[in-house]
Amino acid sequence: MITKRIIACLDVHAGRVMKGVQFVDLIDAGDPATLAARHAREGADEIVLLDITATHEGRQTLLDTVRRTARDLFVPFAVGGGIRSADDAAQVFEAGADKVSVNSAALANPLLIDAIGRSFGAQAVVVAIDARRDPQAGDPVRDAQVFVQGGRKPAGRRVVEWAREAEARGAGEILLTSMDADGTRTGFDCELTAAVSESVSIPVIASGGAGTVGHFVEVFGHGRADAALAASIFHFGVSSARSLKEELARAGVSVRLPC
Amino acid sequence: MRVTVIDYKAGNLTSVLKSLRHLGAEVEVTDADLALVGNAERILLPGVGHFQATERLDATGLTLAIRAAIGRGAPFLGICVGMQWLYAGSTEAPQQPGLGHFVATCARFPESHEKVPHVGWNSLEVRSRPRLLAGVEAGEFVYFTHSYKAPVTADTAAVAQYIEPFSAAVERGNVMGVQFHPEKSGETGLTILRNFLSWEAVTTA
Asked: What is the three-class DSSP state of A1?
């Protein structure tokens, strides 16, 4: 039976994993390669590494980090942050990523999705979407506003129509972050997640708002999510992806266990 | 443990090469060297993307070289589209023939309420003790990402269930294929790759 994926996310700055909220109180949490290997060993189904600063000067550092992280990692590995061209993507793949995640650059130039998909296959392209419900819109959920630049600027797109365009252009997965829920720990935005998931045929990864194991149960059920991002897994009162998945299994969610 | 990896320019080989080297294999990669394939100890054909991309194997002469290598007993493993290529063809590119080692044709998952592509970790039902899957228990999980698949036939080594049962692994003699990505399937995947790497070539000379 197909299982719901728990994806561990590492926020990286200048070659180190950082923890903190929106660049505030950043704490050096360790070496990305070490932490990625630990998450994989402890049951994460996939690893995402996000370069949270993504400066031009930092490209080489990021590629070195990707190379070191990928070396002993034998689960799917996605990398995002600062990928603005098919050439950028090619370098990240060459360094050992299986998928790249594109966000602002794809909104600025949607052809980027086509270009990466053509060269590396749809399975290698994750389109990340940051969305916030729009109370002014006819349908505040389906017409949630898409934002760029880390949520600072509206992109002028609506979440469902942008997700559909991304799929049509060759995206393999959608990584959907609810800006309303992000950081609240009051649960995923299940309505937003379901609206997107039911509008596309590609998998949707839910992100933002998790505070308890129950929130994961909800987003895999009502939210129709195919996977969920666990940015800081220790915040959920569990010690590892494995124990999160064991609790999910007890709640009737199909997960990869033993792992 | 020497392995010749075929590059048909349809995606990224880094993960496959990394996992083979991790297991101690001596890896050589070629996109057109027929002599290398002719002398290969064993051959691995990875693959992502569209079935049409396998036309490059015909254009470069690799199809014939691979057929000959299989004929002399070299172990062959196809991954994902590389497995599908072992069949007569795929409805993804009806004009493009596969190797035809297995007679069936690959087809897209049928319409249903489930999503296509099939992406994620799914469990294996291992059949009849295939050599490739030695040490893999029923119910172990592997990572899939695909929209087309091979039907279950007598040569099916493992079945997976998604919308309908399909061939997750196939094996007959020295020819094997896996629809999933062993290089992305944790310890289970490494076990499978190790089985392939330690498979002795049958010398018919």
From this structure: coil
